[in-house]
Amino acid sequence: MIHVIIRENMDRTMEHIDLSLLFEPHYFTEEEKEKCQKFADASDNRFYEKRGQTSDKKKSIDCFVGKLGEVAAYRRLSLFVDMNEPDFEIYPPNLKSWAEDLNVFGRKIHAKSQNSTKLLRYPKSWTFQHGQGGTDKEVFCENPLGIACFIDVDIWQNTGTVRVFVDIKELHKRHLFKLPVASWLKDSKLCVYYNDIVSNDLHERVPQSLSTAIFMAQ
User: Which residues 6+ apart lie within 8 Å of 115 measured at CB?
Assistant: First the structure.
């Protein structure tokens, strides 16, 4: 009976919450961009070399775009819940953590960003570390409990747009982790492709795990 009452209360509450706002573009402020750029400039990105990336410029851009994506996801989620901001602390490479990027009422959110300029060469996708240089232990484990958040970062349009929230278990269940197109990354990365997300009807949906967390945080 208690579970029925909770479910009914949740349904009534969620009726008044427009979760489609999660997928609206976030327009970065100059302060946000400057903060993310300083983070990228100050970060020791030597661990990227183990992942097949040797260009200092590319390492800095990837770090910059990744942090912008976290900011965009945080801004959209914080419309509904009080939560901690993205972590801007600089860690040495040996202390790199596989911990989640964001947390919503105990739900771990793993933010993954794609630089829109890459769409000129590659299909839209989001990459996970797997193999050479380390494996994301929070994602590739026996019982992954987190939520993946896939974000498009368009530097030219000054926007970050969340495309997908999906339980990581669901990505495994549907066998959506695939090899990257770039041959030099096949030993260190796995990708989730946007076309697969769409064909599996996961685009712009909010999994029950996240909607429950948002309800609990009200």
Answer: 61, 62, 65, 153, 155
Sign of the alpha-carbon dihedral angle for 77, 140, 183, 133: positive
Phi-psi region of 150 (alpha: psi -120 to 50; beta: other; left: phi over 0): beta
How far is residue 182's CA from residue 69's CA, in Å, rounded to a whole number? 22
pLDDT (tens digit per residue) in 123-169: 999 999 998 878 888 899 988 989 999 999 999 999 999 999 999 99
For residue range 105-118, list pLDDT tens digits in order: 889 999 999 998 88
Name residues whose C-beta falls within 8 Å of residue 14's C-beta, 6 or more positions apart in sequence.
211, 214, 215
User: Tell me, what DSSP letter sits at residue 60?
Assistant: H
pTM over 0.90: no
C-beta separation of 132 from 188 below 8 A:
yes
